[in-house]
Amino acid sequence: MRHLLGIEEITLEDMNQIIETAKSMKFVLERKIKKVPTLRGVTVANLFFEPSTRTLNSFLIAERRLSADTVNISKSFSSVEKGETLLDTVKNIEAMKVDIVVIRHSVPYSPHYLSERINASVINAGDGSHEHPTQALLDVLSMIEKFGDLRGLNVSIIGDILHSRVARSLILSLKKMGVKITLCGPSTLLPEYFQNYGVDITYNLKEGIVDKDIVYVLRIQKERQDGCFIPSLNEYIKYYSVTKDILKKYAKKDVVIMHPGPVNRGVELAPDVADGPWSLILQQVTNGVAVRMAIIYLLSGIPRSEE
């Protein structure tokens, strides 16, 4: 791989290589001194043109754990605000001898566009409602740590599927791993064309929870909605909020709850579920650093003999 643009573009072998490398990176995170000189001299530019807490800071920590130099640029502090194009901004940054560009942008396929026009490696940190590949990979690592072989696992993804780049990347990842997937949500946020992904669809929360090994909950993507997709928030909570009572009534006793964050507590997920024994949410955050360390390392092109 020269870039990580999306799960659609990579093979199962690529995914397995990233996951196995991330496992080794976790040993670094568990050490007393959580830093290695592996990427000393490598420069990574983080271009985040959408708000981010977990993903941006996860990349920053990953880069610093590997001793890479970092450049951080947001839309409000870039020349884009003065009318400069995205390509000109990135080309100017690349002229400063940047090796890897991590980009989050509201326009789908922005990372793909850049990858065809610059020499640096490009990592997609989220492009509109299209994909979020690093999130999917950290989710897969979290699932593997919990279940081992994922083949035959039953996973449901519940919430705003229509606007979720996480859902798209996760579906593509889990299909490559042989997982059975059920999508659940209001019909306005879950169009029938998602069946083209080879998944089951239900609009009933009970059916989205019964017999599932993992219940992956998504928030409503208000910032990407250009219309009214649900009657009210209270209506959504009534029919689709995952609560302790719902889990006790319908879920397997050993069900696992996952969420990409940020969690809207009391909306898609009850606080006692987010913090309860079912939850892998904080493990996902930890694995996010390890996966991003692995991706940056693999794309850097530095052979192991130079570590």
Structure overview:
This protein is of the alpha/beta class. It has two domains: 7-131 and 285-306, Rossmann fold (3-Layer(aba) Sandwich); 133-284, Rossmann fold (3-Layer(aba) Sandwich). Helices cover 38% and strands 15% of the residues. It is built from eleven helices and nine strands. It has a five-stranded parallel beta sheet. A four-stranded parallel beta sheet has the order 2-1-3-4, with helices on both faces. Helix 1 (12-30) crosses helix 11 (281-300), helix 5 packs across helix 6 (165-176) and helix 5 crosses helix 11 (281-300). The mean pLDDT is 92.
Question: Would you kindly provide a brief summary of this structure?
Answer:
One of its GO terms (molecular function) is amino acid binding. It contains eleven helices and nine strands. The chain has 307 residues and is of the alpha/beta class.
Within CATH, the superfamily of the largest domain carries the name Aspartate/ornithine carbamoyltransferase
Report on the biggest sheet: 5 strands, parallel
- Strand line-up across the major sheet: 7-6-5-8-9
Order of helices and strands: HEHEHEHEHEHEEHEHHEHH
How many H/I helices?
11
Q: Which shape, going by the Cα principal axes?
A: globular
Instruction: Give unreliable regions as ranges.
Output: none
Number of strands: 9
CATH topology heading of the largest domain: Rossmann fold
- Class computed from helices, strands and strand pairing: alpha/beta
Beta-strand share of residues: 5-15%
Instruction: Name the helicity range.
Output: 25-40%
CATH domain class of the largest domain: Alpha Beta
| Overall number of domains | 2
